[in-house]
Amino acid sequence: MPRVNDPGTLRLALVGICAGLLSGLLGVGGGVIIVPLLVLWLGWNQRSAQATSLAAVFIIASYGVVAFGLHGEVRPVTAALIGLPALAGVVFGTRLAAKLHSDTLGILFGLFQVTVAIVMFAG
Amino acid sequence: MNVLWIILAGGAAGVLSGLFGVGGGAIFVPALVLLFGFEQTTAEGTSLLAMIPVAGLGAWVQHKSGLVQVRSAATVGLVAGLGVVVGAVVANHLPEITLRRIFAVFLVIMAGQLLLRSNKTRVERLNAESASGDGTV
Hints:
The structure holds two protein chains of two kinds. Helix content of chain A is 83%, strand content 0%.
């Protein structure tokens, strides 16, 4: 079990709080905030941060589905329609990521993050 | 026709998910709003369901490469439950556009730091490679 007084664990918990806040506020998975926080606060390399983020998003999205599902705001058939092609895409995407240097990934991620921020700001 | 676009959007979201370690909501949500006319909340709920298998498969593929820190992912994911509850309560009391803008600014600041750091590492790596005369990956 992780020790609570371990500074690494505390920082991870803070990352979790930030991701959960973003998810609860805006209904997203939180990956766009987990990855940079793992890199900047915990000094992880980009590749491990991204891989670990996906696993955390898997858990966080599950909470969201329960919360939104209780309000009848989940459409399973449409989720399958958009999610199935995404399954093919994610395998391709991970292979693509594996071919890139961690620093190249970091730069591409930063640009992606700025794009997301612009869309988010515009609403 | 919209079905074709939604399939394409799904594929693109998946590629971004694998490439960047995110869930894909940044594409799922606007795609559902623009192409299917979903309300924002329904788009978010549906997007979250769609990303569960996507993030799960992506994490599994990465785990087989030994890249997932399982205990850390569990810590982040479990603690996030608290954040989700707090976030949902706050979201009921503040206008969404305000929340979006706060987070957008936060994201841009982090992106700037990430870009600087990654660029520094990249320059160091390229210098080391050219010094050793080894241009291969």
